[in-house]
Amino acid sequence: MSYPSMADADGRTLGAEEIEAVTRALRTGMLSSVWGTEVRALEREMAALHAVPHAVACSSGTAALHLAVAAVAPEPGDEIITSPISDIGTVAPILAQNAVPVFADVDPYTGNLDPDAVAAAIGPRTRAILGVHLFGAAATGLRAVADAAGLPLIEDCAQAWLTRYPDDRLAGTVGTIGCFSLQQWKHITCGDGGLVVTGDATLARRMRLFADKGWPRDGGTRRYVSLGLNYRMTELAGAVARAQLAKLPGVLAARRRTARRLVAALADLPGVHLPADPDRHAWWLFPIVLDPPLDNADVAARLAAEGVPARAGYLDEPLHCAPVLTEAPCYGTSRYPLSTPPADRVPEYGWGTRPNAERLVTQTLLVIQWNERYTDEHVDRIAAAVRRAVTR
């Protein structure tokens, strides 16, 4: 039995609406968002969905995070605390702004940042906290830590479209800035694209300027008032994203319905830990945490042998162990800002420093691909295969 995948049409919601949207944009003859209407409309619709006053579109989820990091304006060598379990796109913008990523450890069952570990990692050079809603589960407790320390909280919502906190607030609206991805593998897509949301007008303007070479388009003159890059979204991407955004509630409803079915089917299985709040989770992937002696690589191999799209650990190594941070140069042959003096501020990376994250990746975390096109039969086959794999 085959499983729908976000890599092909069977697992995507792309259809007549997106074709019409692209055609509409093409017929205007204007494909740049500077003078077009699609991207500006997308921003208004995204802001309305999240009940915030400001949304800014950009070219990717990584770009969205770069806008956010640039907006909170770290000084060179300042530190931003983040998660060791994420895509490198969470960390690259920190380095690009000459700031230092500091990794706090994670909760051993959700993989989200442990608020106590974050609080312990705050130092005199900490400029922000960048939390990741891993796989679509809300990373709770970070706002209180950020407020106590007087720090901005950036939310990486790339995997967390319409994720809700326990109090039903949407992911992206609890922090200072929320960052979203429209990449091929996300809940909705325009191939590549990003969006940021915020309630802060000053930060919104900084991000809009950073995405457009520091060029304020509202002044009627060609002046560059701040450092910025070209992170503009095209009108074609914006048109597709608008059609996809309209389908987002249906995508989440479908993923949550089938995820609830799998949670119920596996709830009595010893040694298996499942997400606790299926109706607020976004289910980008379906994560399972295993108790020893169950081993994630062994269970993943058994599932793959039955055709179930599963893998162990999500990453080859947690980010604090990745060569890009432990040994590779950042600029030329220099490891600046990672080697910023004084010596007691050089960040601590490598194996043995974040045990919960390391254990999840190497031993306990199993992820199953998830999709809005899964049927009850898909779910029941996965459930049966998981039972066989963990009880064999």
What this model shows, in words?
Helices cover 35% and strands 13% of the residues. By secondary structure, the protein is of the alpha/beta class. A seven-stranded mixed beta sheet has the order 1-7-6-5-4-2-3, sandwiched between helices. α4 links the parallel β2 and β3 (100-103). α9 (296-305) packs across α12. It is globular, with a radius of gyration of 21 Å. The model has no long low-confidence stretch (mean pLDDT 96).
Q: Can you list the strand order of the major beta sheet? A: 1-7-6-5-4-2-3
- The global form is globular
Question: Element order, helices and strands?
Answer: HHEHEHEHEHEEEHHEEHEHHEH
- E-strand count: 11
* CATH superfamily grouping of the domain at 9-244: Type I PLP-dependent aspartate aminotransferase-like (Major domain)
Provide the residue-averaged pLDDT: 96
Largest sheet, if any? 7 strands, mixed
Structural class determined from secondary elements: alpha/beta
Residue stretches low in confidence (pLDDT < 50, at least 5 long) are none
Alpha plus pi helix count = 12
InterPro entries: DegT/StrS_aminotransferase, PyrdxlP-dep_Trfase, PyrdxlP-dep_Trfase_major, PyrdxlP-dep_Trfase_small
Cofactor: pyridoxal 5'-phosphate
Protein name: Glutamine--scyllo-inositol aminotransferase
GO molecular function: transaminase activity
Give the helices and strands, then pairings.
Elements: H1 16-28, H2 38-49, E1 54-58, H3 61-72, E2 79-82, H4 92-96, E3 100-103, H5 115-121, E4 126-132, H6 142-149, E5 153-156, E6 177-181, E7 194-198, H7 201-210, H8 235-266, E8 272-273, E9 285-290, H9 296-305, E10 310-312, H10 323-326, H11 355-364, E11 365-369, H12 376-391
Parallel strand pairs: 2-3, 2-4, 4-5, 5-6
Antiparallel strand pairs: 1-7, 6-7, 8-9, 9-11, 10-11
Protein name: Glutamine--scyllo-inositol aminotransferase
Family: Belongs to the DegT/DnrJ/EryC1 family.
Keywords: Aminotransferase, Pyridoxal phosphate, Transferase
